[in-house]
Amino acid sequence: MNIRYEEIQGVSLGFYALVAGLGVLILAALGAVFYMEHHGHYVTGMSNRIVWGVPHVFALFLIVAASGALNVASIASVFHKKMYKPLSRLSGLLALALLAGGLMVLVLDLGRPDRLIVAMTEYNFKSIFAWNIILYNGFFVIVAVYLWMMFERRMNKFTSKAGLAAFSWRLILTTGTGSIFGFLVARQAYDAVIMAPMFIIMSFAFGLAFFILILMASYKWTERPLGDAVVNRLGSLLGIFVAAVMYFVAVKHLGNLYLAENAGVENFILFDGGIYTQLFWYGQIILGGLIPMALIYHPALRGNRSTLGLASIFILIGGVIQLYIIIVGGQAYPMEMFPGKEILEGYGGIAAYTPSLPEMMLGVGGIAVALIAVTLLVKFLPFLPESLADEIADPHHKS
Amino acid sequence: MYRLVAILMVLLMGNVFADKHADHSNLGEEASSIKASGKIFHTDGLDVIRKMHPDFLNHKRDKTLREGVRTKEGSLKGCVNCHAIKDKKTNQYHPVNDKDQFCSTCHQQVSVSVDCFSCHRTTPRKGTK
Amino acid sequence: MSKTLNRRDFIKTSSATTVGVATIVSGITLTTFAANANENPVTNEKRWGMLIDTNKLTEVEIDGMVSACQQENGWGSEVHSTGDQKPTWVRKLKVQDKATGKITSLPLMCQHCEEPPCVDVCPTNASMKREDGIVLVDKHLCIGCRYCMMACPYDARSFVHEDLTDQREHMPRGKGTVESCTLCVHKVDNGESPACVASVNSDAVIFGDLYDPKSNINQTLKKVQSAQIRADLDLNTGVRYSGI
User: Fold this and answer.
1) How many domains, chain B?
2) How many domains in chain C?
3) CA–CA separation, C89 vs A105, rounded Å?
């Protein structure tokens, strides 16, 4: 069966309302940036103890999700699963859009965003950060080429090679993102090699959750047919990814508890960390893990798109919470500076952090940038198949 | 492409010499007194220092910060000390990067922002060591 | 090129360590010859370090070190930053041994590691170590990403959270960049001791060249027990402590 791709019309009131709404969020984010940069970071909740706050939470969340969103395309062109092929273009687009949103947040939270050119011209190759700058820029190029090969009929034959390159690149990219934390030897909350693979599996879950939501929304709003075969397949895959994230989280925390040096910070996150403990159990584990799995796997809810959408939203919220605990919670607990001694004065204690409104606006603005990019580009380029009905999308369909 | 770059360069060069005939009321107190005495401080010529001062400063900054070379040549402190002017009423120095002060007159005209003074002191030093 | 770009104020302000000879040639050119130690780049033949004897150093003296640093480098009078947002180049720490209950006070600042994690993580080479072991932030290159603050095991770095004016002439500081103890590099290059060391009127804090066998710090370190903070990280710090 031939797949026909077609731009969406994008003339309805709903379309313009969506674009306008996202535009407002982006303007609010830019206003917040101007406010923060004009005054300096004292207007935020961040400090010299919590040096990375909510903007980094959203930025890393989006960057991690970006590499995961590319998975759908990778499954088609690297693992040759036919059903995923019609979804590849949207997958590539979403990956680029999410990365752009995440990088915008990351850059605009710098102390000197006006010096971005320095980051592009001065490289310290020992720095994971510098490597990430190269990895992010490379991701844009590789995925753009990959998309071009999908779009251009004469280039179609190279799609699987480009897909393999993009898939390898994204694995390295997420490894790099996880290693930002994994190599911080001084901090007990981070110093663990497992951070890199954990970030990869997190990217699978967050990226797919984003993808499912956007796929279902765009087909519903454009009234194009979307068959159960595709949706259910993506749904069960999402369930597996969420279970895998929970497994990695369990291994990481159990492994950390075993080391006396890290027991303090583990107890803090798991048991007596106040807001961080509550966020961990109620937000990350229950809301972001157990409930979505129940929604996906409960026999009574099988094939129910509303509950799949709800599960995806919970996974995304849980994902933001998970990164909040890793980034902010990990910094809030003091470093072990004097093993065997207790610091009475001068350093120590749990660092206070209250996210400020401008920080939140910047973070949400990053999501809005990603969504508006997808919304506009599916109008101007044929990213979406005109139909994903079962008889078209499902290679095993029997009528 | 090269032609475009060349045209752009010429335009920029024009701006470098633009203030040749401007008045020198904001030249700075010490610089004015050197000028009045008939001596020449920037012996390579004013067009050289106008064109090249960013290079001199950048070169010096790396030498000083990274290698500990603390000679006076090309030192930003020297620029500020010489080219700052005092307000007649308050007897306080105007920051050299204030509007219409020494650094700003040209930089405003060519729309090039000065990044030095987001960190560096903008007036001659006070009594503190 | 730069040879002819001389500074008139050179003559006016030439310091004790600078031997300047100024000749005015035909009233036009000022030529200077300076025979000065800091005309040449620093080398790795020296490694600056500090030894702090916590048994001799009193709490009052530690407070004095902190305020000497503030006075010298101009930090601590920020108006908008609150709580942990305020910069801290050096702080007074009080630690208690969990077994014996012994309480020790000590000043903690950048430890000027030989293998500084802040330098490794900095994406733009702004975080840097001079040949003579002094770890600095090149604020010309700093983009304010704060990764170095994440990496530092000593919480020694601060981010400037607000606009600053009236900085010290020798110590540029500005909003959106990271800063920390410079070991008073501007004084060291002129043959002086860091301000905090100079503020202590005893040998409780010694500053000098760790490599020089004739230096006080080298000889003392050979005699007394000393420790590095977080020695397990193997960073080989330039700041050493005895009595902890």
Assistant:
1) 1
2) 2
3) 29
